[in-house]
Amino acid sequence: MFKLLLFLFFLGLVAAENGLDGWLRYAPIPFAHKHHGHIPDKIVALNSTESSPVNTAGLELQKGFKGIFDKRVKIDDRIHGRHGKGGSSVIVGTVEQYANAGGKADVPSLGNDGFWLDICGSTARILGQNERGALYGAFEYLSRLAQGKISDDTFASNPDAPIRWINQWDNLNEGGTHGSIERGYGGYSIFFDNGTIVPDLTRAAQYARLLASIRVNAVVVNNVNANYTLLTEENMDGLARIADVFRPWGIQMGLSLYFASPEELGGLDTFDPLDERVIAWWHDITDKLYKRVPDMAGYLVKANSEGQPGPLTYNRTLAEGANLFAKAVQPYGGVVMFRAFVYDSKTLNQTLDWRADRANAAVEYFGELDGKFDDNVVVQIKYGPIDFQVREPASPLFANLFETNTAIELQITQEYLGQQCHVVYLPPLWRTILDFDMRVDQKPSLVSDIVSGKRFNRKLGGYAGVANVGTNTTWLGSHLAMSNLYAYGRLAWDPSSDSVEILQDWTRLTFGFDPKVLHTITKLSMDSWPTYEKYTGNLGIQTLTDILLGHYGPNPASQDGNPWGQWTRADSDSIGMDRTVWNGTRFAGQYPSEVAELYEHPETTPDDLLLWFHHVPYTHRLHSGKTVIQHFYDEHYDGAARAQDYVHMWKSLRGRIDKERYEHVLHRLIYQAGHALVWRDSINTFYFNKSGIPDDAGRVANHPYRIEAEDMILGGYLPYAVSPFEAASGATAVVTASNSSTGTAEVELKVPDGKYDLAVNYFDLAIGRSEWSLSVGGREVGRWEGDSEYVLGHAPSPYIDGHSAMRITFENVWVRNGDKLRIVGQADGEEPAPLDYVSVLPVGVVD
Ligand SMILES: *[C@@H]1O[C@H](CO)[C@@H](O)[C@H](O)[C@H]1NC(C)=O
Ligand SMILES: *[C@@H]1O[C@H](CO)[C@@H](O)[C@H](O)[C@H]1NC(C)=O
Ligand SMILES: *[C@@H]1O[C@H](CO)[C@@H](O)[C@H](O)[C@H]1NC(C)=O
Ligand SMILES: *[C@@H]1O[C@H](CO)[C@@H](O)[C@H](O)[C@H]1NC(C)=O
Ligand SMILES: *[C@@H]1O[C@H](CO)[C@@H](O)[C@H](O)[C@H]1NC(C)=O
Ligand SMILES: *[C@@H]1O[C@H](CO)[C@@H](O)[C@H](O)[C@H]1NC(C)=O
Ligand SMILES: *[C@@H]1O[C@H](CO)[C@@H](O)[C@H](O)[C@H]1NC(C)=O
Ligand SMILES: *[C@@H]1O[C@H](CO)[C@@H](O)[C@H](O)[C@H]1NC(C)=O
Ligand SMILES: *[C@@H]1O[C@H](CO)[C@@H](O)[C@H](O)[C@H]1NC(C)=O
C-alpha cells in the first residue's frame, strides 16, 4: 500500500512537470510547515455562483494552499461574526460584495479590474473593483506565497490600460484535419478541429486559468486571416461553449471576422460596408452571437491586407469598414479592434522606385482617418512599421493618431525570432518600443502612455499579444518561451515592470527556489535577445530570415526583390533602406519633428537602427568605430559563441530541475547552438560574397577544422548545389543518388592522436526520416534520424536550405591519425540523407 502511494505521489510529481501548469504549479515551498501560521483557517469567497470569478478565486486559493503548504482549507461563502473573530480567514470578493456582507475596509478607489490586497498574518482580504479584479488579487496573493514571499502588506493595484487581449491565430481546418495555427509551434489548436469547435474544452479552460493569472481579460480565438465558416449556427453554438469555459476566469471571448462573409456565407451579392443589406446582415450575426455570449468582448478585423477583402474594395474608407462592426457591437458594450497592418505591396517597385517603402503604409492609410473612427474602435498597431523584426523603430502611427483609440500588437509567438527553437526572452525588445518617447508636440509621449490612453486622453486602448499556444503540454513548444507569455500579461498591466523582476518571478514559479537555477535562467534569458540579434540581422537591417518561406532560417537574398516590400537594398558596395526625407522614402518624416530630425542623419541615428534608416557603404564607420561589414562579421561570431555557452549553462543545472523539462530544454539549446552556427556562416558568407571585403580576423570562409562532404570519397552520394548557396558550407552538400538509396562518404583523418568533438552538419527536411551513422576507425560513434520535424515544431521546409540545416555533435571521440571517418546515409522517401560537412574539433573549439 505504502509502495503504491509512493508510486502515485511520484507519478503526480512527474506528470506535473510536463509544462501544462506553466507558472501555476503551486509546488511545495521549502520549510512549508514553518509558515503554517500564515495559513488562514478558512477561505471566504463572497460569490458561490459557479461561473463567478470570485468563486473561481476561492477554489484557486484552496488549490494553492494544498499545493504550497499541503494544507486543506475549507471554503465558505459568508463572513461569520466580526472580522478577526472565529478564526482567521482569507476573504475574496468585490468591494461591494464585502460591504454588503458587513465588511469594513478603507479601500482606495480602484480602477476597472483593479484590486486591493491586505495581508496581515494569517488573515487576508482580497477585494476587487469587480469580480475579475478579485480573481487577479487572489492570483497575486498566491504568486507571493508560491515564491515564499510571506509577509504582511497592504496595497492597491490598477491596470495601466483597459485592453489586455490575446490574439490566437487558430484556423478551423475543414476537411478532417486538426485545427492548424498560423505561426504556432506547439501542436494543434486547442479550440478547433475539422471545421468546428472541439468537444472537449479542458485545455481552453486551463489556458484561461494561465491568462487570468497574468490579468489578460480577453482572447480572440480565431486567426485574423479569418473564415466565414466561423459564423455558421453550429459554430456559433460551439463558440458559446468556449465563452462559457472562459467566463469563470474573467476572460471574455473575441472573434476575428472575415470581411466578405455577407457575400460568401450570407449569399448577398456584395459586402459593401455601406450597403443596407450588408449592415443588416452583420447586425443580425452580432445579435445572434450576443444572444449566445452576452459578455462577448467584440471583434478583431484584418481588412484590405495581404489578400484579405475589406472596405477599400468598394472605395469605402477603412474607418467606414471599422465603424460597420462598431455600430453592431456598440449596444452590447463590445469593442472593435481594427488592425493597422494594411499595405499594398503591389504598388511598390524596388527596382524602379528608390522612394518605395512598405513602412510608410500604416501612416498613409490611417493618418488621415484620425477622428473618423467610432468611440468603440481601437486601431491595433504592430510595434514596428514592418513586421515583428528582431529590431525595429516604434511604429510612427502611434504618433499620428490623437483622436483615435490605439493598441500595440506584440508577438509572443516567435515568428521571426527563432520560432521557439531559439531562446529569445522578449520583454527587453518590447521595452525598446514601449519606453520610446515620440516627443509629440515636444512633450513626453511614451508609446506606453499613448496606447494606455493617457497621453491623448482616450478611454480605450492597450495591448494585443499574439500567443499561438497549441495542444502540446508545453503550450508554446518550449518551456523557456513561456516566460514571454507570462511577461506579456505583466507588462500589459504595468509597462514599467522590470524585465528581470518579471523573469525571476516566472522562474521561481516555474522551476522553484534553487538560486543557481534562478541565476542561470536569468543570465541566459536576459542575454538571449541581444544574442539572437547578433547572429541574425544587425544594425536594424531586419532578421535576414527567409521572407518567402517560413520566416525561420537565414536567407538574406530573399530580403530583396521580394513582392512583400521587405527590403534591404544590399548591393556590392552598400546596404540599407534610405528612409530619409531629403533623399529617401521619407519615412523618417512620419515621426514628430524631434524624432524625425534624429533619424534623418546617420550621425544622430543610433547604430542599432542605422540600416533601417540609411543606405551606406559596407565601409561606413559606426559610432563604435567599426565598419558596417566588420560589425556584421564580429557580431555573428560573438552571437554564435554565446549560443554555444547556453548549452554549458544549462548543463550546470542537471539534477536541479526535473528530468523531463531539463532534457526538453537541453535538446533545444543544443539544436539552437548548431543552428546559430548555420546563421553565422550563412550571413557572413553571403555578405562576404556580395562585398568581397574580407574579415579582419580571417575567420569568414576559413574553416580549418572542416571537411566538406563533397571532398570526401563518395559512394552513392552525389554533390548538390544548395540554394541559397550560403546555407551550405562551400555552397555544396551531398545527397543520395535516389530516393531510396544509401550513400557513403569517407575520409582519412590526418590529425594527431587524441580526443576530438566530431560535429556533423546535415539537413533534416520536413519529409521523411533519413538515417545517418558515423564511424571512426571502424568503430561506430553514433547514429541518428532526420526526425526533427516531429520534435522541433518550427515552420517546416521540404528543401535543403537554411531552415533545414542542422548539426549533431559527438563529444570526446578518440581518434588516431590515419583513422577512416565514414558516414553512411540512408534516404527515406524524398529526403535524400543530405550531408554538408564534418568538423573535427580539438576539445573546446567550436566551428
Ligand atoms: C455572483 O456571480 C454571478 C456570476 O458572475 C453574477 O451574475 C452575480 O451578480 C454575482 N453575485 C453578486 C452578489 O455579486
Ligand atoms: C473558408 O473555408 C472554406 C471551407 O474550408 C474554404 O473553402 C474557403 O476557401 C475558406 N475561405 C478563406 C477566405 O480562407
Ligand atoms: C470532419 O467533419 C465532417 C463533417 O463536417 C465529417 O464528415 C468527417 O467525418 C469529419 N472527419 C473527421 C476526421 O473527424
Ligand atoms: C507537439 O505536439 C505535436 C503534435 O501533437 C507532437 O508531434 C510534437 O512532438 C510536440 N512537440 C513538442 C516539442 O513537444
Ligand atoms: C472606385 O473608384 C475608382 C476610381 O474613382 C473607380 O474606377 C472604381 O470603379 C470604383 N470602384 C467601385 C467598386 O466603385
Ligand atoms: C519593377 O520594375 C522593373 C523594371 O521595369 C520590372 O522589370 C519589374 O518586373 C517590376 N517589378 C514588379 C514587382 O513590378
Ligand atoms: C540618394 O538616392 C540615390 C537614389 O535616388 C542613391 O543612389 C544614393 O545612394 C542616395 N544618396 C545617399 C547619400 O544616400
Ligand atoms: C560569390 O559567389 C559567386 C557565385 O557563386 C562567385 O562567382 C564569386 O566568386 C563569389 N565571390 C566571393 C568574394 O566569394
Ligand atoms: C524522389 O521522389 C519524388 C516524389 O516521390 C520524385 O518527385 C523525385 O523525382 C524523386 N527523386 C529521385 C532522385 O528519384
UniProtKB/TrEMBL annotation:
PANTHER family: ALPHA-GLUCURONIDASE A
EC number: 3.2.1.139
GO cellular component, one term: extracellular region
Protein name: Alpha-glucuronidase
Function, as annotated: Alpha-glucuronidase involved in the hydrolysis of xylan, a major structural heterogeneous polysaccharide found in plant biomass representing the second most abundant polysaccharide in the biosphere, after cellulose. Releases 4-O-methylglucuronic acid from xylan.
Family (UniProt): Belongs to the glycosyl hydrolase 67 family.
Annotated compartments: Secreted
Gene3D superfamilies in alphabetical order: Alpha-glucuronidase, C-terminal domain, Chitobiase/beta-hexosaminidase domain 2-like, Glycosidases
CDD domains hit by this protein: CBM6-CBM35-CBM36_like
Reactions performed catalytically: an alpha-D-glucuronoside + H2O = D-glucuronate + an alcohol
Main location class: secreted
EC category: hydrolase
Keyword set, alphabetical order: Carbohydrate metabolism, Glycosidase, Hydrolase, Polysaccharide degradation, Secreted, Signal, Xylan degradation
InterPro entries per record: A-glucoronidase_C_sf, GH, Glyco_hydro_67_aGlcAse, Glyco_hydro_67_aGlcAse_N, Glyco_hydro_67_C, Glyco_hydro_67_cat, Hex-like_dom2
Biological processes annotated in GO: xylan catabolic process
Example GO molecular function: alpha-glucuronidase activity
